[in-house]
Amino acid sequence: MTVNELIQFVNGVVVDTSNLERGFLLGAGYDGDKKVAYLKILDPDTQKVYYYYDKTFHKPYCFSKKSPSELAYLRKRDDVEDIVVEEKWDPLTDSMIKVSKIITKDPLAVGGHPSEKSIRNIETCYEADIKYYENYLYDLGLIPGTFVKLENNKVQEILNEFSEEMQTALKEAMRESDEYLKKYIEEYAALLSQPFPQIKRAAIDIEVLTEVENRLPDPEKATQPIISIALAGNDGKKVVFAIRRNDVETGSAPEMPKDVELKFFDDEKQMLIEFFKEITNYPIIVTFNGDSFDMPYLYHRAQNLKIPRDAIPIVLGREIASIVHGIHIDLYKTFVNKSIQGYAFGNRYNEHTLNAISEGILGEEKVEVEGSINDLPMMNLAFYNYTDAKLTLELTSYDNDLLMKLLITLSRIARMNIEDTSRLSVSNWIRSMLINEHRRRNALIPRKEEIEQKGQEASSKAIIKGKKYQGGFVVEPLPGVHFHVVVLDFASLYPSIIKVFNLSYETVKCPHEECKTNILPNTAYWVCTKMRGMTSLLIGALRDIRVNYFKRLSKKAKSKEEKEFYNVISQALKVVLNASYGVMGFENFPFYCLPVAESTTALGRYSIQQTIEKAKSLGVTVIYGDTDSLFLKNPTEDQVKEIVDFAKEKLGIDLEVDKVYRYVAFSQRKKNYIGVYEDGSVEVKGLSGKKSHVPDFIKNVFFDVINILGKVKSPQDFEIAKEEIRKRIRKAYNDIKNRNVPLEELAFKVMLNKPIEKYTDTTPQHVKAAMLLAQKKEVKPGDIIAFVKTTTKDGVKPVEMARKDEIDVDKYIEFMESTFEQLLDALGFSFDEIIGATKLEDFFSF
DNA sequence: GCGGACTGCTTACCT
DNA sequence: ACAGGTAAGCAGTCCGCG
Q1: Residues whose CB falls within 8 Å of the CB of residue A490, separated by 6 or more in sequence, listed in order
Q2: How far apart are the first and last CA of chain A?
Q3: Are A240 and A387 in contact (CB under 8 A)?
Q4: Amino acid A5: pLDDT
Q5: How far is the CA of A754 from the C1' of C12 (A)?
Q6: Which residue is nearest to nucleotide C4 (CA to C1')?
Q7: Distance separating alpha carbons of residues A832 and A816, to the nearest angstrom
Q8: Per-residue confidence at A372, pLDDT binned at 50, 70, 90?
Q9: CA closest to C10 C1', residue
């Protein structure tokens, strides 16, 4: 059965439509049976997804530098359609060259087969590792996440109309940009300010009877019955489909919301059929781990139960699962993405479980289950199941559908299927963005090793052993307490440098003789004076549009909704910009270019050091700085202005006042300080006390002390604070000494990053604990191991296996001491003086 | 056989 | 599977020590 026939069943309509006034492009795909590319287009009015099959006769292809006659032997293959000569611009030589375009009948003829069946395995090809449907999108100029129209079988982007405010803001944003940059900024403004459509979506979650406790059933075999399925829709739909069982109690779930529909079935097959019908109402299906569990399980279970193929709306790929009537988003993959975790959600979760992520982002937790799912009373199981689906949905709907909007915006920037954007990492997004740029310039994409010819060895030496080149510069902090500190910050420093210094793989060490004298300061490289680099333009435009356009529009917004709209776009841009420099130094990135990465940080060091010199010359004390920031001690407004102007005029980079602290306390450590704002709120950076592995008990004391410090308004106040701090720490000290602390609060929580057996060089404490734990239950990479320090043989025990009397009290006192030392150091008092080291015995008399 | 100095491994943080 | 820089704790090693 072809995808086409399937869809006809699912939607009950002929889906290969030729006319649609305003559709929303979800993505592209390839139909292996019809051998043709297709688009999935959502009609926002009906919430139905139409398939548009290519009618431009687009074919798979790749390029070779050999002549067609040298490649003539390929013509004998029946999967090769034609070989034609094309002229393309070669970025590395800055010249037009002739290449052979090998056109095939099947994407597998280009690549994807492990053998000689794929041409890229037998010839040195160009652009042969781009997925066929990606090529289709680039070549037709279509962008997933945007609005398109279908008119007489032609598909076209619908361009955005600009309001007056947007026009004005755009002019303002482009004021300082060069001619080249302006074009890009205008395009991005139009692309990214498109509205977000309302799309129906539902989160689903299944429960399966387990054979062996604590072991996940095999989704390929799907031998065990599905006993419950929950669905939570953004239209308010809440359903649990469950099997009526006699072997467990009915149970009760008083917390279950009244509006959850409960549909009980005697027959599993009937349940699945009903469920499949229900989900076809939702063009977006959301799961947590659906790619590797729920979707393949449902699919194979349905097959085992002899449900006809055309009643199963699931399409399984090699690693991803999709749905016929729309798209499937597996949130697990989205939340594992480091850029999403860090830049979009501020590292509010560390562990990649539904529970940990929900807790971090929503402040809600899963329902706890003791023992096996198998023995759970029916109602309790339904409630547990429903809660998971609800949390999954909420992760996409919280903050006004923030995540969905981010994914759509990122798809627009990356020009990538929404399904792919949600699963792939930032280097893939940027790769796609750059490939598209090459296509529209008719540029041949160099092979990776050709770019690497530019330089394999760095000219700077990394400070950290094993790293390739030197990074940011950190100023030695001036220890002590400093009142009225102004923090200056280069606005997205590295993207600015890439923009201002024209950094790109083809412009750094460009082929022109006359550019060789144009040396980049603080580096061993020259940069092109004749052409604007591609990454410089793209990253530069993204930077300018974020800083000068969306951020300004957000400040001027008239409504909350408008403000939020601009903030989402700004946030998505931040994610891409923050990674834009890093990918240049990432070996597996297809446009990896060490000279570009190295120049970026070298120019960063140059910028901050020049600015420090300027500050010094004005008599301003720089008490600290890290990569792109400078902490100034009690500067005048004029001094600040002069430094900011210097950066703009002499370096061409925006330097802004980021924050003003009432006071800052530094120890002698870098990346380690507390800053107190005028309103008494406190920012803690790098101190052990805030680190996630620290036992809750110590963390609580730490933050109590921080709160006390927030109340300090003048140097005199420290005396009072000191007394309060002393009391708080003494109490904690006593509690530990007297074993008055619950075990859980003493647990260190450290992540296991690899399987236990891979720790061959050393056996850290959390691994020792994990080994003990492994005797009782499965321990996997990514798990957080909770352990306490004990006086037993290994020195540690998993918290659930330890007793209070085994706790190594002295180790905890030691740990507490070093944690507070960082803080007390900076304030000029010591732990000993707080505790009163000579009076230790006093505490035992309590 | 033990302790101190040292290095390397590991994790979590900062930009 | 974006980068490098820093802090901290602990594991393991080397060396001296009659």
Answers
A1: A496, A607, A608, A628, A629, A647, A653, A654, A655, A656
A2: 80
A3: no
A4: 44
A5: 20
A6: A471
A7: 12
A8: confident
A9: A764
> Are A709 and A721 a contacting pair, CB within 8 Å?
yes
What letter does residue A344 receive in the DSSP assignment?
Answer: I
Chain A window 724-763: residues with CB closer than 7 Å to nucleic chain B are 749-754, 759-762
CB atoms within 10 A of CB A777: 11
Q: Which residue's C-alpha is at the least distance from the C1' of C8?
A: A688
- Residue A456 pLDDT: 85
Q: How far is the CA of A108 from the C1' of B1 (A)?
A: 67
What letter represents residue A44's amino acid? P
If you ran DSSP here, which 8-state letter would residue A536 be given?
Answer: H
Distance A757 CA to C7 C1' (A): 27
pLDDT number for residue A792: 86
Q: Output the pLDDT for position A9.
A: 43
Q: Name the residue closest to the C1' of C12 by its CA.
A: A762
- The distance (Å) linking the CA of A686 with the C1' of B14 is 7
The reply to whether A671 has its C-beta less than 7 Å from any atom of strand C is yes
Q: pLDDT tier at A15 (50, 70, 90 boundaries)?
A: low
Q: Residue A716 above 70 pLDDT?
A: yes
Measured CA to C1', the nucleotide nearest A339 is C2
- Residues 572-631 of chain A in contact with strand B via CB under 7 angstroms: 626-629
Checking if the pLDDT of A19 tops 80, the result is no
Instruction: From residues 606-665 of A, list those within 7 angstroms of strand C by Cβ.
Output: 627
pTM: 0.94
Q: Ramachandran region of residue A68, left (φ > 0), alpha (ψ -120 to 50) or beta? A: alpha
User: Which residue minimizes Cα–C1' distance to B15?
Assistant: A627
Q: pLDDT tens-digit profile of A22-51? A: 999 999 999 998 899 999 999 999 998 989
Distance CA A242, CA A797 (A): 41
Strands A48-53 and A61-64: unpaired
Give the separation between CA A44 and CA A21, rounded to whole angstroms: 11
C-alpha span between A356 and A188 (Å, rounded): 36
- Beta strand A201-208 pairing with A284-287: parallel
Q: Choose the weakest-confidence range: A177-186, A242-251, A747-756.
A: A242-251
A613-632 per-residue burial string, b: 16 or more CB within 10 A, e: under 16: ebbeebebebbbbbbbbbbb
A58-83 average pLDDT score:
96
- Of the candidates A844, A833, A820, A817, which has an alpha carbon nearest to the alpha carbon of residue A723? A833
Positions of chain B reached by protein Cβ under 7 A? 8-15
Q: What pLDDT score was predicted for residue A336? A: 94
DSSP conformational letter for A247: S
Query: How many whole angstroms separate alpha carbon A646 and alpha carbon A611?
Result: 8
Read off the DSSP letter of residue A783.
P
pLDDT per residue as tens digits for the range A338-362? 999 988 888 889 889 999 999 999 9
